[in-house]
C-alpha cells in the first residue's frame, strides 16, 4: 500500500477527519443510465452531511457530464476532461483547452479518414462524421469545424475506433500533444498536461485536504493515475483485471451499489453489509 490509510484509525479519530472522495462516472457511478442508484445517492449525501467532500473525477468533459446526475447529487467538486477542468463549490480552479488551430487540424484529419470523433467541450460537444442522429453539433465540413472551434473550449477527444483502425496520420498529429488511451471499443485523447491525478491534486490543495485523506473509485484504464494518487484506491467489481491488480481494495460491481458499499465501509467507517 502506498500510504497509511487513515480509515484504519479508531472511531474517535475518524470523527475528526475530513475525506475527499473522487468518483469516476461510467462503470462506477452509472451503468447505461444518466443517474446513479438511490442507494449510492443516499450514502453519498450522508457522507456530505458528515463533512466529507464528494467529487466527480471523469474523463468526460464538463459539458458531457449528464445533467440528470448533476441534478440528482450536489457534487462538491468536479474534475472533468481527464483533468482539463477542475472546480470546487462552483469555483473554477483550473482550465485547459485544445487550441482552436489544433481543433481545425483534428477536424481536417478525421474528415479525410472518415472516422467518427467526438470533440468534447466545456459546455458542448461536436461529432465529426456523424453516422446517425446525435445531440452533438455535427461536423461534416471545415466550415462546421470553424464554427465549433470559434465558439467552444474543446478539452478532449473520444474516437469511435480502436487502435488497429487508426492510420499512422492519427499518431503523427496527436501523439506530440495528447496522451492516447486505447480502450476495448474506443480511443481517448487527453492533453498531455492533463490527467485525473493532477486534477485531484489541484482540488485537494484548494480544499486543504491532504492526499492521504483522499479516496478514489474507478473501473477503467483512464482511472489509473487517479487511483495511484489517492490515499485509498478502490476498484469496482466490474473493473478491468489490470485495474483491480493496481489498487488497495475492490468493492462490489456498479450494478450492486459498489460505490455505496465502499463509502460506507472506508469513509463512514461502517460495515458494508449494514
Task: Write a compact overview of the structure shown.
The chain is an alpha/beta fold. The protein contains 10 helices and 14 strands.
Structural class: alpha/beta
Q: What order do the SSEs take from the amino end to the carboxyl end, as H and E?
A: HEHEHEEEHEEEHEHEEHEHEHEH
CATH third-tier fold name of the largest domain = Rossmann fold
Number of domain modules: 2
Q: Can you give the helix content as a percent range? A: 25-40%
Task: Report strand %.
Answer: 15-25%
Cα-atom radius of gyration? 19 Å
Task: Walk across the major sheet and give the strand order.
Answer: 5-4-3-2-1-12-13-14
Please give the CATH class of the largest domain. Answer: Alpha Beta
- The tally of helices reads 10
Q: What would you say the CATH architecture of the largest domain is? A: 3-Layer(aba) Sandwich
Largest sheet: 8 strands, mixed
Low-pLDDT stretches = 1-14
Mean of all residue-level pLDDT scores: 92
**What is the tally of beta strands?**
14
Query: Looking at the structure, what is the overall shape?
Result: globular
Distance between the termini: 26 Å
Amino acid at each position: 500500500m502506498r500510504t497509511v490509510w487513515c480509515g484504519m484509525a479508531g472511531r474517535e479519530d475518524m470523527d475528526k477527519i475530513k475525506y475527499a472522495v473522487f468518483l469516476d462516472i461510467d462503470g462506477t457511478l452509472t451503468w447505461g443510465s444518466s443517474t446513479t442508484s438511490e442507494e449510492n445517492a443516499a450514502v453519498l449525501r450522508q457522507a456530505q452531511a458528515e463533512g466529507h467532500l464528494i467529487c466527480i473525477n471523469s474523463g468526460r468533459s464538463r459539458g458531457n457530464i449528464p445533467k440528470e446526475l448533476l441534478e440528482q447529487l450536489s457534487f462538491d467538486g468536479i474534475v472533468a476532461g481527464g483533468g482539463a477542468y477542475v472546480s470546487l463549490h462552483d469555483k473554477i480552479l483550473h482550465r485547459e483547452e485544445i487550441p482552436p488551430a489544433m481543433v481545425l487540424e483534428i477536424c481536417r484529419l478525421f474528415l479525410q479518414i472518415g472516422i467518427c470523433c467526438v470533440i468534447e467541450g466545456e459546455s458542448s460537444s461536436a461529432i465529426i462524421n456523424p453516422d446517425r442522429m446525435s445531440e452533438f453539433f455535427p461536423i461534416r465540413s471545415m466550415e462546421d469545424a470553424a464554427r465549433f472551434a470559434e465558439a467552444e473550449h474543446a478539452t478532449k477527444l473520444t474516437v469511435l475506433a480502436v487502435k488497429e483502425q487508426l492510420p499512422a496520420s492519427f499518431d503523427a498529429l496527436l501523439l506530440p500533444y495528447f496522451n492516447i488511451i486505447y480502450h476495448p471499443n474506443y480511443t481517448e485523447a487527453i492533453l498531455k498536461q492533463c490527467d485525473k491525478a493532477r486534477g485531484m491534486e489541484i482540488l485537494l490543495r484548494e480544499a486543504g485536504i491532504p492526499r492521504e485523506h483522499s479516496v478514489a473509485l474507478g473501473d477503467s484504464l483512464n482511472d489509473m493515475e487517479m487511483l495511484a494518487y489517492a490515499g485509498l484506491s478502490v476498484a469496482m467489481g466490474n473493473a478491468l483485471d489490470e485495474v483491480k491488480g493496481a489498487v488497495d481494495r475492490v468493492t462490489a460491481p456498479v450494478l450492486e451499489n459498489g460505490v455505496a458499499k465502499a463509502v460506507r465501509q472506508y469513509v463512514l467507517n461502517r460495515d458494508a453489509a449494514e
